[in-house]
Amino acid sequence: MRLSPSFTFLAGWAVSASMTAFVHPGLLHTNADFERIRGKISVGAQPWTSAWDTFHGLWLAQTSYAVRGPHAIVYRGGSETQNYGDLYNDIASAYTQAIQWKLTDDTSYADSAVKILDAWATTLTQINGNADRFLAAGIYGYEFANAAEIMRGYSGWPAASFEAFKTMMVNVFYPVSLDFLTNHNGQNGVVWPTDVLHYWANWDLCNIAGVQAIAVLIDNQTMYDYATDYFYNGPGQGSVNHTIPFIYIEEGSGKELGQTSESGRDQGHATLDYALLSVIAQTAWNQGLDLFGYSNSRILAGSEYMAKYNLGNDVPFTPYVTRAWGNISTISDASRGIIRPVWELLYAHYDGVKGLNASWTGAMRDHVLNNTGGAENGVGSAGGNSGGYDQLGYGTLLFRLDGN
User: Fold this and answer.
1) How far apart, in whole angstroms, are the C-alpha atoms of residue 101 and residue 113?
2) Domains in the chain, number
3) Which residue intervals define the domain Alginate lyase in the entry (predicted)?
4) pLDDT-based confidence at 382, cuts 50/70/90?
5) ∠ Cα 308 312 313 (to 5°)
6) 202: pLDDT confidence band, cut at 50, 70 and 90?
7) Which residues fall within 8 angstroms of residue 87, CB to CB, at 6 or more apart?
8) Among 199, 306, 330, 310, which Cα is nearest to 248's?
């Protein structure tokens, strides 16, 4: 890693200029994306219109949504009363209502989304709990930043309120994510030589996504470069060559398949890795950096491997050793075939943008759609527990491209 960050390196962030100009909005969605989607809906094009009809009626995406927070301290894990569900539901509502505003111009959605953002910005001071607090910081950090990034252009959100939200993200979410990536909950430097790899990839990936999203939100190039550098070179499981450590050549097609480090654990967590990798890569893409294509499109190789296996096919597997689980000798069939809203984004990029062979990813996308009424689901409809809120989803509406 080129950087040795501390919790003080962002001093003066609010007034310092970034090294390069960030695109806004520029996390998962740009203004061009919203214009493309609006155009499809306006002429009744499919599958966007049917996906929009479902999204538009989503219970979380209504101005009547009953805000569940805010709380001064959010707990995930540990002995305290668990209230993190209030946070992820409120984030999901703010995000989906922000999209409603961008696609309808109805400012009642904008006002409702801003109300949620402001409530948490003026109240939340800490994310606490056991080790799971790091998951909360990373996952809800990148999702919250996405909601605010969409709303940053709303004239009804005063500049002072937006600044207060950014300050909360820097003071509450960012330090927890950076602490994890730097120290891995105290595992770094322990005698066993691979203790930095103690935590599975999704722990690193969600916190990379969180740091990256906050960096764009607050226009901080140093923070953004740290997240990018960790994706390339980080010592933990979340650097892409650790997340996807083994590459095979598929017989017949000649394309690469990438074994995912969590594939020997279970398929629920292994597919979560791709939900998070796609968030990191899409954000970078919108900022002018192609992480999708890094290392001969390594994310695609991993996506093809995961999709092929979860569609019921055999894939090669190399045994490996983990600190927490010991020897992993075979791929896991736990949660095999899981329906997770991640494949639309990946297929849209690799097939629609790049024109690459992403046939297994496309087949997995179609399998998911066959089980979700023809449109990818997401927060508020992909399951009621926290796992249904680990990715924002709704890719059929938000990421599908022509001919894709």
Assistant:
1) 9
2) 1
3) 81-311
4) confident
5) 55
6) very high
7) 69, 71, 74, 120, 124, 136, 140
8) 306
What is the Rg, in whole angstroms, of the alpha carbon atoms belonging to the chain? Answer: 20
Which token pair is 210?
Answer: 């969180």
Query: Closest Cα to residue 352, out of 344, 364, 341, 342?
Result: 344
CA distance 300 to 311: 16
Which residue range is the domain that position 285 belongs to?
31-398
Residue type for position 391: Q
What is the arithmetic mean of pLDDT over 134-151? 99
- The total of other beta-carbon atoms located within 10 Å of residue 124's CB is 21
Q: Mean pLDDT over residues 372-390, rounded?
A: 92
Among 295, 309, 276, 307, residue whose Cα is nearest residue 392: 276
Is 38 within a domain? yes
Q: What percentage of the chain carries pLDDT values higher than 90?
A: 88
Interior angle at CA 244, CA 198 and CA 287, nearest 5: 105
CATH number of the structural domain spanning residue 91: 1.50.10.100
What letter does residue 173 receive in the DSSP assignment? I
In a domain, 380, yes or no: yes
Query: Quick one: how far is CA 51 from the chain centroid?
Result: 20
